[in-house]
Design a protein that fits this description.
Largest sheet of chain A: 7 strands, mixed
Low-confidence stretches of chain B: 26-32
Order of helices and strands of chain B: HHEHEHEHEHHHHEEEHEHEHHEHHEE
Oligomer: heterodimer
Low-confidence stretches of chain A: none
Number of helices of chain B: 15
Helix content of chain A: 10-25%
Shape of chain B: globular
Mean pLDDT of chain B: 93
Strand content of chain A: 35-45%
Radius of gyration of chain A: 19 Å
CATH superfamily of the domain at 41-155 and 248-266 in chain B: Thiolase/Chalcone synthase
Number of domains of chain A: 2
Order of helices and strands of chain A: EEEEEHEHEEEEHHHEEEEHEEEE
CATH class of the domain at 41-155 and 248-266 in chain B: Alpha Beta
Distance between the termini of chain A: 28 Å
Helix content of chain B: 25-40%
Chain lengths: 267, 427
């Protein structure tokens, strides 16, 4: 019997046990967790690691189906032998991931939002098409993407005089770097229709009914531009408080770009 | 260090950031605005294709625009006396990214003339004109060509979508789902929130510009639009609808500049360049000081007005960069025609309507109706002012007794801007 169940965390759900926890998608099909429109194992594991909080821990995981560049950027020590690990992470075949020191497998309690299977199939097909797409114009290379991962995933910012700069300028001293808190306030937003979305999102935008993008002001005063998580379910307003969480952004050239998206804290 | 360099450095860095010193009067009044001690420059010829969807390719369009520009010169003129050529283009679609300008000048019979492509997104030819003006103003050239070219409608829709938005911050804005309609939509929503304005104010701008464009034979969308229709357009990026957005157009435009000592040999009706200004800002909206003000416009306008010695009340016509209706509203404020927050009222009262008040805004139809072939838009605006000040446009859209005109050409969502002031007389 688990202790605390259905704890909302970064847009997912967590069930805690005496000796570990399971993090799982809030979407389900007949009580089995299924991935939402922009979530996969990398996103779930990333959130699970952030649920652990202590980045000094060593963790073991089977790296298949995971973007280890993204997960490594969060800061944990990934070890190759389970015996050396403080925590063993087990991926299910379904949309849940178990964290425990012993490797014990925890399963989530049956719950979650019943999804529309047709919608989810269309989204998955769109991701597959997106993965096969190639750029014909604006392009973010893998090297360029990896170079900025610490800013993109960990919100590392630059302190200069009295200003906080994010994304950073790439000419700074190490002591100038500070992490931003992953929360903020919407100062403006827009919802693009399928025709108004960038081509990188052309396969999914029509299925989602468009994309919502917001300008988010951090406590430090700096501003960033972020997509809204699961935007078809999250209407937003100016001054809404949001949390930034790791999600899929888009796919191209056979690989997925991850980054932070904003999730409204209201409700 | 020489005193001149010290003076220049003080101008740029004295007590504050470069942006602050450019925006505000600070140790700057005693310095002559760029180029004002040099020779006067006039536009002696200007021409453009119709903006829209062309069967002609880039070479054909450029040929048509340059021939029209040559024909507009009052006296004998041929391209063999051109010293320099500056051609704006974003090379949309990637058909001819490298050496675009050489291909164009070759095709208009200017082989051998020093030429180059100028790229500053949608402000490419506004900056091409500024570069040409500098060349003539400084005495390095007697005659220069400035122009622009863009071929946008050859592309399939998906490939076109790839290219739209390449001038924003690819890594941080585009990856967050932003296109240019979406970027301007963020500005519009914030503006509505911060000032007493609603989408209806933008609808007035759309209706006005379509009304002006109706009689412009060179306009892409020669049709009037009712308030009701424009208010209920298909959404593109909330709160901006189709009627808030300019079309994607093919087109070319070409302007001929000459130094004062040769002007009278070429024309009896020169249009003088009384002021030039340009500025820049952060590329991404989230890095800006304020998202409802375009600092690049304010910097450019300040320079251009200082150089001309004119004030906003002297301007009869303004061709402003209304890629989206909110952009016109912000331009009217940032250029100084009204105070901050009053752009909505200016639009609501139709104060920019042809011959309705002291200032006519976008008598060509603007980008909204005339069209927006990115690289050709800036010099396309100058073609309009040239023709307006010479009384050469269709009578239904002629601004009465116009003495001075202004052009305002913006790159991207405001990362670059060029402003020029023209007059029938040298000020």
């Amino acid at each position: 019997m688990n202790d605390k169940t259905g704890i909302p965390f970064q847009g997912h759900l967590v069930d805690e046990f005496n000796n570990g926890f399971v993090i799982y998608s809030k979407h389900s099909d007949n009580n089995t967790p299924v991935f939402g429109p922009d979530v996969d194992f990398t996103c779930l594991v990333a959130s699970g690691l952030q649920y652990l909080k202590n980045k000094n821990l060593s963790v073991f995981i089977d790296t298949q189906e995971l973007d280890m560049e993204v997960l490594s950027s969060i800061g944990f020590n990934f070890v190759s032998e389970s015996e050396q690990a403080d925590y063993i992470i087990n991926k299910s075949r379904d949309a849940w991931v178990s964290f425990s020191p012993s490797g014990e497998l925890f399963e989530p309690a049956p719950r979650g939002l019943q999804t529309n299977p047709t919608f989810m199939e269309e989204i998955q097909r769109a991701w597959e098409n997106e993965l096969r797409s190639v750029s014909q114009g604006a392009y973010v290379s893998r090297e360029q993407y990896i170079r900025s991962l610490d800013q993109r995933i960990n919100l590392m910012a630059q302190r200069e005089d009295h200003a906080t700069i994010w994304p950073m300028n790439f000419h700074y001293d190490q002591e100038q770097i500070i992490p931003l808190e992953p929360t903020g306030k919407i100062i403006s937003w827009t919802k693009t229709t399928a025709a108004g979305s960038p081509s990188e999102f052309a396969f999914r935008s029509p299925i989602l009914g468009g994309l919502t993008t917001a300008l988010v002001e951090f406590e430090k005063g700096t501003i960033g531009t972020f997509l809204i998580v699961d935007d078809h379910q999250n209407p937003v307003s100016i001054n809404d408080e949001v949390e930034l969480v790791i999600r899929r952004i888009y796919a191209q050239d056979g690989w997925i770009r991850y980054g932070l998206k904003a999730i409204p804290l209201k409700g | 260090m020489s005193s001149a360099l010290t003076q220049h450095r003080n101008r740029l860095t004295d007590s504050g950031s470069l942006l602050e010193s450019l925006l505000h009067d600070r140790e700057i009044e005693h310095l002559p605005p760029l180029g004002c001690t040099m020779v006067n420059v006039a536009v002696v010829g200007a021409g453009q294709t119709k903006f829209g969807t062309h069967t002609l390719g880039m070479k054909g369009m450029w040929h048509e625009a340059s021939v029209e520009a040559i024909k507009s010169v009052d006296h004998d003129f041929s391209l063999d006396i051109v010293d320099e050529a500056y051609i704006g283009s974003t090379a949309f679609g990637g058909g001819q990214i490298g050496n675009t300008a050489a291909l164009m000048t070759e095709h208009s019979g200017m082989v051998g003339v020093p030429t180059r492509r100028v790229e500053n997104a949608c402000a490419s030819s506004g900056f091409a004109f500024r570069d040409a003006w500098m060349a003539v103003k400084s005495g390095a050239a007697k005659i220069a060509i400035a122009g622009g070219i863009e071929k946008m409608n050859d592309l399939e829709s998906e490939r076109k979508r790839f290219w739209l938005g390449v001038s924003g911050d690819t890594e941080w804005e585009r990856m967050a789902g932003l296109t240019f309609p979406a970027t301007y939509a963020l500005m519009a929503r914030k503006y509505f929130h911060d000032f007493q304005s609603t989408h209806d104010d933008l609808v007035h701008i759309s209706v006005k510009n379509h009304k002006h464009g109706l009689f412009n034979q060179k306009a892409h969308l020669q049709k009037e639009v009712s308030f009701e229709k424009a208010a209920n357009g298909k959404m593109v990026a909330d709160p901006l609808s189709l009627y808030d957005c300019c079309p994607t157009s093919d087109g070319a435009s070409c302007v001929i500049l000459a130094a004062e000592d040769v002007v009278q040999d070429l024309t009896d009706t020169p249009v003088w360049v009384n002021g030039s200004g340009a500025g820049s800002d952060y590329l991404a909206l989230h890095d800006r000081r304020n998202i409802t003000t375009l600092d690049a416009t304010q910097i450019a306008a300040k320079q251009a007005f200082e150089a001309s010695g004119l004030q906003t009340k002297d301007i009869d016509i303004a061709e402003v960069h209304d890629c989206f209706t909110i952009a016109e509203l912000l331009a009217i404020e940032d250029l100084g025609f009204v105070d901050k927050g009053e752009g909505g009222l200016f639009a609501r009262e139709n104060r920019g309507l042809l011959n309705h008040g002291n200032l006519t805004v976008n008598p060509s139809g603007g980008l909204k109706s005339k069209g927006h072939p990115l690289g050709a838009t800036g010099t396309g605006q100058i073609v309009e002012i040239f023709n307006q000040l010479r009384g050469d446009v269709e009578s239904q859209r002629q601004v009465r007794d116009a003495e001075f005109g202004l052009t305002h050409n913006v790159g991207g969502s405001g990362a670059t801007c060029a402003v020029h002031i023209f007059g029938r007389e040298i000020v």
